[in-house]
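Annex B.
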Amino acid sequence: MQHRVQRVKTRHIILAVMCLMYFISYIDRVNIAVAGPLIRHEMGLTTVQLGLVFSAFAYPYAVMQIIGGWLSDKFGPKLVLTCLSLIWGAATLATGFAGSVAMLVALRFTLGIGEGGAFPTATRAFTYWMPVGERGFAQGITHSFARLGGAVTPPLVLAVVVAGGWRDAFILLGIASLAWTVLYLLVFTNSPEQNRRITPEETAEIGYRTGDCERARKTATPWRKLIHRMWLVTFVDFCYGWLLWVYLTWLPSYLKDSRGFDLKQLALFTALPLLAGVIGDTLGGVVSDRIFKITGRLRLARCAVLVVGMGGSLAFLLPMTSVSSPIEAVWLLTASFFFLEITNPVLWTLPLDIAGKYAGTAGGMMNTGFGVAGMISPVAFGYLIERTGSYNVPFMVSAGLLALGIVAALFINTARTVEADEERERREGGARGSALAFLDAMPGVRMERHTLRRPLRWRR
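MFS transporter: predicted structure tokens.
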């Protein structure tokens, strides 16, 4: 009997669908920044009200990281991501019909709920679909599409705005999000054993064992072990996220106010770092996987990329503050962002490496660092600019956090996994149980618990 040969593997189709999700969701996230001036003019909003609309997304986004990841561990990523995408798609669509600042805030808050749990759930979706040697690439390419979404949002949204107005942009993007939900339902399954298209050969390549998904769903979440193993990764993600939020929020203002670029130049020079990030995301995942395949040392493959990525970003960020040429400053910022994004796929791969079947919850814990950075970094950066009258001091603070992240990354150990902790406890428990059973079986020896004291006492 001949086995059918697949030109495109099932896991790669699922990866393509997830890439599309990252792309669409990031456009839905940042389109408000492009449409903001038009919304403010039409509704007569103050800068404070518009800032409130912008920030409404960040708080539920941070809170939903762990919640969304935990739900995906318990109920499966197919159900959870379907619900989340319906929420953010409906919120994006409804924004096109908003008539007040209160409604805008409420819809952006709802968008934060939907998108907050999306990336941890997507990480959990890869647990049983991506072999260890392809996880870095999977996380790299998906986040590359996220950065690509951020880079194409200004021209894409502006083209729709020119043709039909800012409301049409939200309506069309909302429809695109809901259409993706339908595609996801048709293609994705929680595990290979539930998929009709996959072959036994590909299942073996992935390393999936029948029943793994169902057993994981019934297992209680080991919160203490997850926190113990993930807190350092969360801190590194906070250091990474601090500078990323600076790029996403303050880069246009820096280039205009400090470097003197006009509005036409801003469109190009703001997009350059983001496009470099697209390459960095993919390259970081590919290089990490390649190191692992060559050396077989997972810790080296992950930590080396983290250290080189944050170290390279720091090396280009420091001289940027002192150069006099605006063009040279842009290229240094672009190089710094390129190296910064090299670390992103590795950070998202670590929950898979360390937590395994609890990757959804672990991914949420990790990305909480990014969410908290999003709450603090833009405000602190603006405060330091106002107090010092310069962008150099807040950039130096960002550089200092990168240095701390490099040191912390050196202590991340992928060999100390949650599943290894559970296996060790099972062995220790089995050994204790065997010893107690042996003693209980000895003639004339029985084990009793004293009625007034907790410790076990031995009697003959």
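The beta strands are 446-449, 456-459. The two ends are 68 Å apart (CA to CA). Further annotation is deferred to the next reporting cycle.
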